[in-house]
Structures are given as structure tokens and as C-alpha cells.
Amino acid sequence: MSRTDANPSGRLPDAFTARFFAPGTASFVDFLASYAPDLLPGNRPVPAASAATELAAPRATTIVALVHDGGIVMAGDRRATMGSMIASRSIEKVFPADDYSAVGIAGTAGLAVELVRLFQLELEHYEKIEGSLLSLDGKANRLATIIRGQLGLALQGLAVVPLFGGYDLDKGAGRIFSYDVTGGRYEEHEHHAVGSGSVFARGSLKKRWRPGLDEAGAVAVAVEALMDAADDDSATGGPDAERAIYPVVATVGATGYRRVPDDDLAAATAAVLAARRAARGGDRR
Fold first, then answer.
1. Which residues pair with 249 in a beta bridge?
2. 110-139 pLDDT, tens per residue?
3. Distant-in-sequence, close-in-space partners of 126: CB < 8 Å, separation ≥ 6
């Protein structure tokens, strides 16, 4: 009996019910790999990518993250590009991974969103099976495994490079992890950025980050880093007050994941612009 055989009653085929109810791994990815490996994103057959194919896929950048005394702040701009065109001005690139962690996406947008959904399901599945949260190191390792499964797509130019961070309940501190396309996992200290505008954002973070930042100060630094990246990188979109489009900014601390309201981001943006005008000696353009 094949996996696609239909049952008129709507129940699972008897040949497969044992698989779903038998004790096994707490990893949803491992379970799916044993039951239907073709459903995993990295195992789906895709045609060889050409330069035109790569340009036709919307790409998402830029993501920044930094630690502060109470946890972490992660922020992403809202622009997606397709070659020289703006594919979207309001894409979201920062998501809750679970109650105490966040993940930001850079790279091929469609695959990145699918990877985030799979990662969220992986963490939810573990919590339901084990009855407890996975440690922050464990979450970071699970994400590395999922990224490694996408290596075939990455080698065709359809790469996804996320940024992950959260509040470590065991250590009582925020931590940040970066990755490469092979699934390599690296813990970053203080701050980090990924995406096409990351080189400009990192320069801004180096100058503005300082020990002892509170949550509000960290949000202001993240917003300014994205604004600096948008000044020099055409694929990074800055705050758009006219359309009321602001970066997606999230904080993760002892109380969990929280998305920063747009009103707070508008105020932070206005403060950065006011400081720049004052530094120039007035309201000169």
C-alpha cells in the first residue's frame, strides 16, 4: 500500500497508524524523513537553477540582532528584491521560533519562510512529545540540521541563511547564533547582522552597541543599524513613514517573545533623524 492510498472513512491507512503512534524520536524532521522524506524542502526535486531563475526568486535582507541586559533584540527591514526590482515593501523577516526565541531570515524568501515554519513545527513537536522546552543550544542545533538539509538548493543559488537568538532560561541571558549554508553554527557575542546590508549594519552596531544597554536602548540601536544599512544597500528598505512601514523588531527576554509596536518604532526612527539633523547643525538635507 502506498502512502497516497485513500481511505473512504478519512482515517489513516492501517499500514501507517503504527508509525504515528509508536514511540520514537522527538524530532519532527527525523520522523518526516522516515515517513515521507520527499516532503522535506531539501529533498524536493528542482530543475537546475540558472542566473535568470535566481533573479526571479524574491530575496530578503537585512537582519540584525544584539544582546542587552534583559535578553536580545532582533530586527529586519521590510524590503524584498527580485533582481533590480522591489518585489515587496512590507515582507516580514523576523518570526517567533517559540515562546523564548526568534529567527530572522535572509536569502531566498519563499524557501526561508518555509524553513521557519518547519523549524517552528520542530520545536512545537519536541515540546509536545517531551513535555518540556528544548534548551537554547538544542534549538540552535536543530536549526543547523534543517539548514544542512537545504544544501542542495543552496548550491543552486537558492540559499537561506537565518539568524537565530533567544533567552537562555538556564543561563538567564540572551544569546545569538549565526549559520552558513552548510549548517555550520556559530555563537555571536554582543551583536551580529546577516544579509546584503549586513556589512553596513555591522559597522553601525559596532559604534552604537555598548554594555549595559536596556531593552529600549537596544531597540534604538537596531533601528539605527537598519537605517544605516538602507543608506548604502539598495536591497535594504529603510523606515517608510508615509506608508507607515517600519522594521519588524522583536525582543526576547525572561517574559518571552514580544513584537515591538509600530508606534514605538516610529518614535525611535524620529529620534534617530532628529539626532542626525542636530549633528548637521539644522534641518539641511
1. 75
2. 888 889 999 999 999 899 888 889 999 999
3. 26, 27, 28, 134, 142
Nearest-5° angle of CA 266, CA 270, CA 273? 140
Q: What angle do CA 172, 175, 178 make, to 5 degrees?
A: 165
Architecture of domain 57-279: 4-Layer Sandwich (3.60)
With a cut of 70, which residues of the chain have pLDDT below it?
A: 1-26, 28-60, 154, 156-158, 282-285
CB 63 within 8 A of CB 78: no
pLDDT at 51: 47
Measure the CA–CA gap between 10 and 185, rounded to whole angstroms. 42
Q: Tell me the per-residue pLDDT of 47-56, one tens digit each, with 9 for 90 and over.
A: 555 444 445 4
Give one DSSP letter per residue of 95-110, joined into a string. EEEETTEEEE--EEHH
Give the residue numbers annotated as catalytic, written as ranges: 61
Are 76 and 236 spatial neighbours (Cβ–Cβ below 8 Å)?
no
Query: Running DSSP on this structure, what letter comes out for residue 253?
Result: E
Contact between residue 119 and residue 105 where contact means Cβ atoms under 8 Å apart: no
What's the confidence (pLDDT) of residue 151?
80
Beta strands 63-68 and 163-168, pairing class:
unpaired
The three cell numbers locating residue 260:
515591538
Where are the chain's structural domains? 57-279
CB atoms within 10 A of CB 41: 18
pTM over 0.85: no
Residue 240 is classified by DSSP as B
